[in-house]
Design goal:
With 118 residues, the chain is an alpha+beta fold. The chain has two helices and five strands; from the N terminus they run βαβββαβ. It is 30% helix and 36% strand. Strands 1, 2, 3, 4 and 5 form a five-stranded antiparallel β-sheet that branches.
């Protein structure tokens, strides 16, 4: 079975509460589509992904999030890929006023049987 090895990017951004934040999410999606040639997102309104974690005081906190998934053709160790996401994380944490933006990268194998030829 033919397979394509890709790097899967999973990104959680805070659900937008202002027009500026909607535009920021649109910018992130546009950047991902240009870098990865595509992206999949959850709805922004209403947000459909909730995040839960323990804060520094051991209390449960909750955030409403937008989930964005993209697959890059670059290897997970590619310098351009890592630079792109380090920059994206830094900017997103500032733009969304967050202590932490959650981005994960991992290798995936996509089934490529019967794909159209370029």
């Amino acid at each position: 079975m033919p397979r394509q090895t890709l790097t899967r990017i999973t990104l959680f951004l805070p659900a937008p509460s202002t027009l500026r934040q909607h535009y920021l999410i649109d910018d992130v999606i546009t950047d991902l589509v240009e870098f990865c040639k595509g992206a999949t997102t959850s709805q922004q309104i209403p947000p459909v992904v909730s995040g839960y974690w323990l804060n520094l005081h051991g209390l449960v906190e909750e955030d409403q999030n937008v989930l964005i998934i993209a697959d890059a053709e670059q290897d997970i160790d590619d310098a351009n890929l890592n630079s792109f996401f380090e920059n994206l994380k830094f900017i997103a944490q500032i733009d969304f006023n967050q202590d932490l933006i959650w981005i994960t990268l991992h290798k995936v194998e996509r089934v490529a049987t019967d794909d159209p030829q370029p």
